Amino acid sequence: MHLGMSGRFTIDANPTADFVHEHNTNPKHDHVIFEMSSGARVTFNDPRRFGFMELIGEGEPYRLDDLGPEPMGNGFNAPDLRAKLKGKKSKIKAALLDQRIIAGLGNIYVCEALYRAGISPKRAAGRLTVAETENLVGHIKDVIGQAIEAGGSSLKDFANTDGDLGYFQHSFDVYGREGENCGTCEAPITRIVQSGRSSFYCKACQR
């Protein structure tokens, strides 16, 4: 299963109750519903239809075989990242969004991690030093860990399995803050477009 950009699972422990959660999804976008033996209902909802669900036999190849390590897993570390970035001329922002290098690291968290690491999104991925790579890995793990603790980032349609919104968006240092002052140096946050995605960064703090 993959959520794509707008997919999410909602778990309703008592689907026959009259209570309607204020953040319930639009039922016309419910694509798969699991009726559990406990009476609970697990619903896969995806307005944009970028997510997918496939049945794969044991040992059969499938489209997620080439995913990189999870950012919070032991398989994601500085030596591994440095080896994957070696010789890459692409920008570090694009490289970190490549799911074959790191799985599940999205645009928001790349912007935030690069800011904390002091690395410009325009830097060539293969030009990062050993120290910069180690620093970046630490900040990626910190950002993801804090986002998980905060329940994620609810900007448009994201919500947790119980329907509650995340609140990590209230802690953004750069993402979505174009023109606002950097919290470190007070220079204005800059927005550029890279590979069709917005990158937010501080020109003074990120080199």
Describe the structure.
- The chain is α+β, with helices and mostly antiparallel strands.
- It folds into 2 domains: 65 residues, no CATH class; 124 residues, Helicase, Ruva Protein, domain 3.
- α1 packs across α4 and α3 crosses α4.
- The chain is globular, with a radius of gyration of 19 Å.
How far is the first residue's CA from the last residue's CA? Answer: 37 Å
Q: Main sheet, how many strands, which sense, barrel?
A: 3 strands, antiparallel
Indicate the low-confidence ranges by residue numbers: 19-23
Number of strands: 5
Describe the oligomeric state of these chains in a short phrase.
Answer: single chain
Q: Examine the coordinates and then state which fold CATH places here, giving the name of the CATH topology of the largest domain.
A: Helicase, Ruva Protein, domain 3
Shape: globular
Task: Identify the CATH architecture of the largest domain.
Answer: Orthogonal Bundle
Report strand %.
5-15%
- Please provide the ordered H/E string of secondary-structure elements: EEEHHHHEE
- The number of distinct helices, counting runs of at least 4 residues, comes to 4
Mean pLDDT: 86
In order across it, which strands form the biggest sheet? Answer: 1-3-2
What percent of residues adopt helix (DSSP H or I)? 10-25%
The top level CATH class name of the largest domain: Mainly Alpha
> Which radius of gyration do the C-alpha atoms yield?
19 Å
Tally of discrete structural domains: 2
Summarize, please.
The protein is α+β, with helices and mostly antiparallel strands and 207 residues long. It has four helices and five strands; from the N terminus they run βββααααββ.
